[in-house]
Amino acid sequence: MRFLDLTQDFSLHTPAFAGYPGPAIRWIKHLAFDRAGGQEITMTLHVSTHLDAPAHFLTGGKFIGDLPLDFLVGTACVVDLQRMGVGDYDVYGPEHFERWEKDTHLKIEHGDILIIRTGYHRYYPENWTDRSRVDETRYFIRHPGPARAFAEWVLKRGVRWIAVDAGSADHPMNTVIRRIRADEAEEAEKKLGRSLDEIFPKQDYQIMHTLLFPHDVIHIENLGGQLDEVLDRKIRFGCFPWRFQGGEAALCRAVAMIDEDSGAPANSRRSLRVRGDQ
């Protein structure tokens, strides 16, 4: 069994999502004086690789500590959207995932976890596998994302939960980013050729949270690490957050578990031509 770490680094420098303070870390004990080292961390929960619980967007929703391990571990489909040419500001939908099923001859089954690989994990400041392409603005502001059609498709197909290698499971222009970066919103409209009000009407604000969380279809955000080693296949995947009672989110370790001894089934991985880097 081989374990691959799909988690981004966490440090003092890790950026939080828009409107959330980043971490503050300080030493409160030192070996020379206290015979032990000790640290204190102050932070919000929407930083680095983390899991949102339903309570993040739902009064009375489940907390992180309510999520059992058999829910957090299971079969996952790893869908590479970059291969399909999805890039800055683009909106992805059911058609991309149904195309993936045709290309790979794999099926996104009821109860499967869905891992969405946009390729934007490469731009995250804490991308420990390759820091040569770090771009905080591109990562948070320009990553592709879905609209209502995809959220409804997720429910229809019975996806268990989602993981994405971007700052939000929602399109950035369907979050507070659209308001605080009006300049980028203008660029997004130019790229998409449509009004953002048309694509993301007011009632669909953060649709990946508001529509899905009441059904316990939650998500990991800021996935990364060794993600590129498991593209376009089915894997065993696990998310391991704190056993956090009352927690609306938590940092987590995201792990792919690859059984190398038995070998992958013939239809579990495909060699697909990848388009050039964005």
Largest sheet entry = 7 strands, mixed, barrel
CATH fold node name: Glucose Oxidase, domain 1
Q: In what order do the strands lie side by side in the largest sheet?
A: 4-10-9-7-5-11-12
Order of SSEs:
EEHEEHEEHEHEHEHHHHEEE
Return the structural class: alpha/beta
Principal-axes geometry comes out as globular
Distance between the termini: 33 Å
CATH architecture: 3-Layer(bba) Sandwich
Number of helices: 9
Total individual domains: 1
CATH top level is Alpha Beta
Gist of the model:
With 278 residues, this protein is of the alpha/beta class. The protein has nine helices and twelve strands.
Please tell me about this protein's structure:
With 278 residues, this protein is α/β, with parallel strands linked by helices. 21% of the residues lie in helices and 22% in strands. The protein has a seven-stranded mixed beta barrel with strand order 4-10-9-7-5-11-12. The radius of gyration is 19 Å and the shape is globular. It starts with a strand and ends in a 20-residue tail after the last strand.
List key phrases describing it.
7-stranded mixed barrel; two-stranded antiparallel sheet; alpha/beta; single chain; Glucose Oxidase, domain 1
